[in-house]
UniProtKB/TrEMBL annotation:
Pfam families: Response_reg. Gene3D superfamilies: 3.40.50.2300. This is Chemotaxis protein CheY. The keyword Lipid biosynthesis does not apply. InterPro entries: CheY-like_superfamily (IPR011006), Sig_transdc_resp-reg_receiver (IPR001789), ST_Response_Regulator (IPR052048). The lineage of its organism: Bacteria, Bacillati, Bacillota, Negativicutes, Selenomonadales. PROSITE patterns: RESPONSE_REGULATORY. Keywords: Phosphoprotein. SUPFAM superfamilies: CheY-like. The gene is cheY_3. The keyword Phosphoprotein applies. The modification 4-aspartylphosphate is found at D53. Residues 3-118 form the Response regulatory domain. It comes from Sporomusa termitida.
């Protein structure tokens, strides 16, 4: 099972992700409410995968993805965001995210994508 760093400014969303992940046997190695915290916590968490919101106060998701990939090119980042705008999805994937899940998140749309990303397989593109 995977060690996961959950990055989202919403406590409710972090709790939802934690419940889904832990129920599936994964461990939430850390949480962050913005990009600055994610970058600071990434080295000590050593996550197998990161779930990343896009719209957060301070350093947003796309820039955070760029910085995490620059520091660790093997980082496996899955965007979990309410934004379904094609240009936002494109920017996140271009920055290095492995896939993109549009909220609301559920076991059915999160866990299969995590499994595929952990196996270094390409997950299906999100439906817009």
């Amino acid at each position: 099972m995977a060690q996961v760093l959950v990055v989202d400014d919403s406590m409710m969303m972090r709790n939802t992700l934690r419940k889904i992940l832990e129920k599936a046997g994964h461990t939430v190695a850390g949480e962050a409410v913005n990009g600055e915290q994610a970058i600071a916590r990434y080295p000590s968490c050593q996550p197998d995968v990161v779930t990343m919101d896009i719209t957060m106060p301070g350093l947003g998701g796309v820039e955070t993805i760029k910085r995490l990939i620059e520091a660790d090119p093997a980082a496996k980042i899955i965007v979990v965001s309410s934004s379904g705008q094609k240009h936002v999805i494109f920017d996140a994937l271009q920055a290095g995210a492995r896939n993109y899940i549009i909220k609301p998140v559920s076991e059915d749309n999160l866990l299969p994508v995590i499994d595929l990303v952990l196996q270094n397989k390409q997950a299906p593109a999100p439906q817009l």
